[in-house]
Write a structure and sequence with these properties.
The structure is a single chain. The chain has 604 residues and is mainly α. Helix content is 61%, strand content 1%. The chain has 20 helices and two strands. Helix 5 packs across helix 16 and helix 9 packs antiparallel against helix 15. It is globular, with a radius of gyration of 25 Å.
């Protein structure tokens, strides 16, 4: 057994001698990708300089590493990776399954109590904002179609290693708490469904599905939630084909139920209930849009299936955009029906859609809604667990997490250890704690990921090697562009604070003016190249608007969500400094950083 190295330097800087580069480098996707790889090498200092620089210089050098990725990278060990089994239909249903849960039967009516029938416009506005993010995800999914990792991967390629790790930690906390919360909701809905059977009504103990609190509410025992998580984790471990079949069935059932509910409600619509359409003004509609924005979250799950899609370069953009547009249509249809059936002032808070149908004497529809809610929560939970395991797989392969997360079962072709880990974390949280109380600190990771992915689209379009423009001061043209992106994000956050706390409109106008100035600098000071595959239209304007709006929404979150962002970021930096920087897989020709299944040839 060899002795472990004791140096505090990253693994790529420990060697005292360098082997001549004799291996042939894979061609990168486009001229800018080649430039990206060359710049990534420049961030890697020589061994002697890293040794003399000490811990801080080694940390900075490691944190600034970028990941050069070839879309045509070949898995080093054939038969030990993920398998391409998902077609475009499965990808679309994957996105719908992740996005539409029980909320379609609840949040539509809840927001309508404030926005009135104008909640329809709220969903349209929120859907339009999500389309901006979806276009950015679609371009990057098409640009890196052979690699798993989603937002983490794109950040690693566009910015640096530390930023990518920060994005991962913010996303993962959302996923872990969200999965536990959904599991408890699913258990509660499942018990309510069972109580429709007369002899079970009122005889199911609260600790089975609803949760029973102990020690003053510190512990809330729920037995059914972990059981459901174990079942879904087992399905995901068995194989992506089997888990995709379950998601396809449940999502199809959910869509059919929503369509039946809409058609049943159409005949009960009274158009007079739509007047006035915006009783509380347009501001309430905009406020409603900031709330329902998160009802569309989930389309990004499609990007994490890149290594399991049959024709990823073509199908991933279709899956991302197709699932989002389907969700917009379903949400708008439900909004029109629920606000047309009952005056918005009479809508309930807990189950507005079910109560509306019960008031019309259509109690059989309420049963369908209960079934649809169970199906919706099941698919949301299933896809959420699926995405988590793929993110852990990506970080395990890159060395930022222990290598156990990088292992793929040779027969089942699933990341078994990663899948079991995320299932166990969710089961413990769901079984012992009332994680619903933490719902106000969620969505931080989602908005962080969306903002960074939008910025990645811009930076990966830059052609640093062909620009003839002079940089300002000591900053390079690239650093100047990154600074402008940060300014746009800060201006979006400030504008959001002004809107939230009703500050003087002048402050919001100033923030908007500064953001526009930074956007003009990005537009005219950078040289852009067209990417391979799907191309997001209107770059850099569309991604910049996306970043601005995402940060405006970030300002609408609970104050504790901001504290969570700062605290978790500091903890993530500590974990990276103590572990990640020393174990990250180096990106060089001697040590290929990408070891994935190759991209299948696709017909033009």
């Amino acid at each position: 057994m060899t002795q472990e190295p004791t140096s505090l330097l990253p693994v790529w800087a420990r060697a005292t001698t360098r082997r001549p580069k004799t291996t042939r480098r894979h061609p990168l996707h486009g001229a800018h990708a080649a430039a990206m790889e060359e710049e990534g090498d420049n961030h890697r200092p020589a061994s002697s300089s890293s040794a003399s620089g000490g811990f801080l210089s080694g940390f900075c050098a490691a944190a600034l590493r970028r990941k050069p990725i070839s879309a045509h990278a070949i898995h080093a060990a054939s038969g030990e990776g993920l398998v391409r089994q998902l077609g475009v239909f499965e990808l679309v249903l994957l996105g719908i399954g992740a996005s539409i849960g029980a909320g379609i039967f609840v949040v539509t009516g809840t927001v309508a109590r404030d926005a009135g029938p104008g909640v329809t416009i709220s969903f349209v506005l929120a859907g339009a904002a999500c389309v901006l993010n979806a276009l950015c995800y679609a371009e990057l999914a098409s640009r890196f179609p052979a690699v798993v990792g989603g937002a983490y991967l794109y950040t690693y390629a566009a910015f640096n290693e530390l930023t990518a790790f920060l994005v991962f930690t913010q996303l993962m906390l959302d996923y872990h708490i969200g999965a536990a919360s959904i599991a408890r909701s699913l258990a509660s809905y499942f018990v309510q469904f069972l109580e429709l059977i007369p002899f079970l009504k009122g005889h199911i103990p609260t600790w089975i599905g609803h949760g029973e609190e102990f020690f003053g509410g510190v512990v809330s025992v729920n037995i059914l939630a972990p059981v459901l998580l174990i079942i879904l984790t087992g399905i995901l471990c068995y194989g992506v084909k089997e888990s995709s079949a379950v998601n396809t069935f449940m999502t199809t059932l959910k869509i059919v139920i929503v369509i039946v509910v809409v058609f049943a409600g159409v005949f009960e619509v009274d158009v007079s209930n739509w007047s006035p359409f915006m009783p509380n003004g347009f501001k309430s509609v905009v406020t409603g849009a900031t709330v329902v924005f998160f009802a569309y979250v989930g389309f990004d799950a499609v990007a994490n299936s890149a290594e399991e899609a049959k024709k990823p370069q073509r199908d991933l953009p279709i899956g991302i955009l197709g699932s989002l547009m389907a969700c917009v249509l379903l949400y708008v249809a439900v909004c029109l029906v629920i606000t047309g059936m009952v005056p918005y002032t009479l809508l309930g808070e807990d189950a507005p859609l079910a109560e509306a149908f019960a008031a019309k004497g259509l109690k059989f529809v309420t049963i369908l809604i209960s079934i649809g809610a169970v199906a919706g929560l099941t698919t949301t939970l299933l896809v959420g667990l699926y995405v988590q395991s793929r993110l852990y797989l990506g970080l395990g392969r890159d060395g930022l997490l222990p290598s156990v997360f990088a292992k793929v079962h040779p027969m089942r072709h699933t990341p078994l250890h990663s899948q079991i880990w995320v299932g166990c974390v969710a089961a413990v949280l769901a079984g012992l704690f009332n994680v619903h109380m933490l719902s106000h600190i969620l969505s931080v990771g989602t908005l962080t990921g969306y903002s960074v992915v939008s910025a990645c689209v811009i930076t990966l379009r830059w052609n640093d090697k062909t620009t003839t423009r002079h940089s300002l001061g000591s900053m390079s043209i690239r650093q100047e562009g990154v600074l402008c992106l940060v300014i746009i994000a800060l201006c979006g956050f400030i504008a959001g604070l002004c809107y939230r706390f009703s500050y003087a409109t002048a402050f919001m106008i100033i923030a908007l003016f500064v953001a526009v100035a930074a956007g003009l600098a990005i537009q005219f000071r950078q040289v852009y190249v067209d990417p391979p595959g799907f191309s997001c239209p209107g770059v850099p304007i569309v991604p910049m608007v996306s970043v601005f709006f995402n940060m405006l929404l970030f300002a609408q979150l609970h104050e504790e969500a901001w504290y969570r962002f700062v605290i978790l970021s500091l903890l993530a930096v500590g974990v990276y400094a103590g572990y990640g920087q020393y174990h990250a897989v180096p990106s060089s020709s001697d040590h290929p950083a990408v070891a994935y299944h190759g991209l299948p040839s696709e017909a033009p």
